[in-house]
Amino acid sequence: MERKFDFSIDEYYHVYSRGVERREIFLNNGDRERFMRLLYLSNSMKAIRYTDFKNLSYSQINRGESRTSIGAYCFMPNHFHLLLRETTESGISSFMGKLLTAYSMYFNKKYKRTGSLFEGTFRAEHVDNDNYLKYLFAYIHLNPIKLIEPEWKERGITNKIAAKKYLEKYYHSSYEDHIGVKREEGLILAKDAFPEYFDTPHDFSDFINDWLMYRDDGNSDVYKGSPCKLQGLPL
Questions:
Q1: CA 227 to chain centre
Q2: What is the pLDDT of the chain when averaged over all its residues?
Q3: What is the pTM of this model?
C-alpha cells in the first residue's frame, strides 16, 4: 500500500506490520527477545552485525547515533506496534528496513522457510495531533489485553486486577519502562523525544487504568472526545 505522506523531521508516527497471511511471526520468547534486541541494534547510523553483540547487555553495546526515536512498542503473536519520531532524514524508513530484513533472515533460517515474512511494506500513520499521540501510549500498551479478553472493548473487562497484572508481566512491550521498572531494555526508548504527558510512573499507571475502564458504548468518560472517536480509529 502506497503511503499518502512523506516522513518529516520531528513528526510522530504509529508504525506497524503483521505476518504475511496473518501468520504468527513470534513463535516463542526467543523470537520476541531477538526482535527486541534488533529494535535497539537496528536503530543505529552504523552498520551493525547482530553476532558481534549477541552476548553483550544493552548498556555494553556502543551503537552510536540512533536513526529514529522510539517512544513505545508492543509485540503481539502476528504483528507489532511502534511509536516513532522521525529525527534524521529517512530515519524511520532506514530503521524499519534494517529491522524487518534482519528479523526475516533470522526467522526464515531458524524455521527453514523462504519468502516474505511480513505483509508487504510496513504501515504507518502520521500522528498529527496531541490527543492522538497521547492516545497511542494507551492503544499500544493495551494490545495484549486482547489475548486474554478478546472482546473487552465491547463488553468491558471482567477482572481488571487480573488484566493489570497481565500487562505488568507482559515483558515484550515498553509497558514496564513507563511504569518505572528499571531494566536494560529501557535503553530502547528515547522518552525525552516525546511530550511529557506523565510526570510520574504513577500518572502513566492511572492513565492506563482509565482505559481499562473503557467500554465501547460511548458512556465512558475516557471515551468521550477521544481520538479514536474523532478520527474514526479503532481502539
A1: 18
A2: 89
A3: 0.90
